[in-house]
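Methods: holo model generation. Sequences were used as deposited, without trimming of termini or removal of tags, and paired with ligand SMILES retrieved from the corresponding compound records. Each pair was processed once, and we did not select among multiple samples. The sequence and S-adenosylmethionine SMILES for this entry were:
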Amino acid sequence: MEHYFTNNNNLKSNLRSIEYKVQNTSFVFYTDNGVFSKSSVDYGTDLLIQSYLENGKKTGKVLDVGCGYGVIGIVINKINKQKVDQIDVNKRAIHLTEMNNKTNKTKSKTFISDIYENVVDKYDVIITNPPIRAGKKVYMRILTEAERHLTQNGELWFVVRKDQGAKTIEKELQKKYKIDLIKRQRGYHIYKVDFALTN
Ligand SMILES: C[S@@+](CC[C@H](N)C(=O)[O-])C[C@H]1O[C@@H](n2cnc3c(N)ncnc32)[C@H](O)[C@@H]1O
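and the model returned the structure below.
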């Protein structure tokens, strides 16, 4: 079975564009077969973006992990003018993110990375709609190893659905870190983790 996170160069391309509007700003995103949520921006992604724009840092450098076709980082760069890097394990996702930065007149450093393996900088914010389907080992590494790539007062923002184990993930992170449930809507939970503060 083909998952959106696999690197399959043989997967037939079907480039299309979708529209997305947030805070009165319109975006166009090119999407394709083999990337997450290709027909419209995912509900959880949209909720994460809106929650971050309302409650997150307005300055500082942001890392968009598992960027897909780039929506989260591109919106943050456009609206908050924050400097953004975007990573994904999937080559097609990286290619689309580069196209989408050009299309939306935004800028990011975009590169392939399996989890954080090619990440060298430190960030004030790491934000992700993590790849639950890639398995617990992968998504828990994305969440917990964020600590090593954040500045001292850096924050991790993420979205996860209740039926994908939101409560279990919350409890696991709570053992060590301060985690806040920022918003809960239609089964989607938005969390912020402050690694500098322990429970
Ligand atoms: C749920 S999707 C989110 C995509 C995009 N951020 C969005 O919200 O539309 C998760 C993304 O994580 C990527 N991913 C999966 N495994 C990964 C890994 N080991 N390292 C980095 N990214 C990974 C997938 O390719 C996918 O684009």
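Residues 4-5, 36-37, 42, 45, 66-68, 71-72, 88-90, 93, 113-115, 129, 131, 134, 138 surround S-adenosylmethionine (CB under 6 Å).
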